[in-house]
Design the sequence.
């Protein structure tokens, strides 16, 4: 399986049209068709469903697309790393991060570093903890910012100088907005909007054996979308503070949860990781800031 052919496959999957994909890659359509047919023969599966109008991925094709995106990302990242080995003034750093106030602390470190080394570029991948850690483990990311329920023994890590407060996002005109704060017991009677990560981690910790009684009416990946659903009156959004607008000009307000711990944040990287010179600079800057 050649890297070049994987690029042909991905471009065809994105365009859903072999002729357009071939044009974008500056090769002939017969060459593209021949290479993809040989790839199917090599793998022993059909990758595309072809029609008169377009082509769609089969189930096997969707699996290969997921793998090919990771493989090519790692190949491209590796090439970039070797190009930057002898140049401290430029290079790429890849960081996975959730939506969190801790990102502001990290951004300040990167900003200071870029003032001294303006050719450094920071690439942020936003996702939930599972996605971020998976990409870090595969080598697709150099660093990740995570909450305290990650198994830190697997990584090198630094605690960040921030603790994010959990709370409830609700409409300002909601009768419950008169409460200055909420407790877990108050949540049991409410329709909740929460992230899927919250369902996996906070829900069982907060509610114990009573999780079946919790009324989850919607889930979200991005806090903005959670806030939109709260504004529409779908329910009460479980969220960390300062992720969405809740000032006096907003229709929403934030009310803290009193009986849950704050979310501790860490920046982690793989043990025995070989860093590029640029990443080494960032590690030193992070240690200076957070150690």
Sequence:
């Amino acid at each position: 399986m050649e890297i070049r052919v994987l690029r042909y496959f991905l471009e065809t999957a994105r365009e859903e049209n072999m002729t357009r994909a071939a044009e974008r890659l500056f090769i002939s359509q017969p060459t593209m068709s021949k290479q993809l047919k040989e790839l199917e023969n090599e793998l022993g599966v059909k990758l595309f469903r072809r029609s008169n109008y377009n082509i769609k991925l089969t189930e096997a094709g969707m699996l290969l697309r997921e793998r090919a995106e990771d493989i090519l990302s790692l190949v491209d990242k590796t090439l970039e790393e070797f190009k930057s080995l002898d140049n401290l003034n430029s290079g790429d750093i890849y960081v996975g991060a959730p939506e969190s106030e801790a990102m502001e602390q990290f951004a300040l470190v990167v900003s200071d570093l870029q003032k001294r080394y303006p050719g450094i570029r920071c690439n942020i991948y936003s996702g939930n903890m599972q996605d971020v850690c998976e990409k870090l483990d595969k080598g697709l990311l150099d660093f990740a910012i995570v909450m305290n329920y990650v198994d830190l023994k697997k990584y090198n890590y630094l605690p960040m100088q921030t603790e994010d407060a959990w709370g409830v996002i609700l409409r300002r005109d909601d009768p419950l907005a008169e409460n200055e704060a909420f407790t877990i017991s108050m949540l049991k009677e409410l329709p909740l909007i929460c992230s899927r990560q919250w369902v996996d981690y906070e829900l069982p910790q907060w509610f114990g054996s009573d999780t079946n009684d919790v009324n989850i009416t919607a889930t979200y990946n991005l806090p903005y979308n959670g806030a939109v659903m709260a504004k529409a009156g779908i329910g009460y959004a479980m969220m960390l503070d300062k992720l969405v607008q809740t000032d006096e000009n907003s229709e929403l307000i934030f009310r803290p949860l009193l009986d849950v711990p704050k979310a501790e944040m860490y920046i982690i990287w793989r043990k025995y990781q070989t860093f590029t010179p640029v990443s080494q600079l960032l590690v030193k800057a992070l240690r200076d800031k957070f150690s």
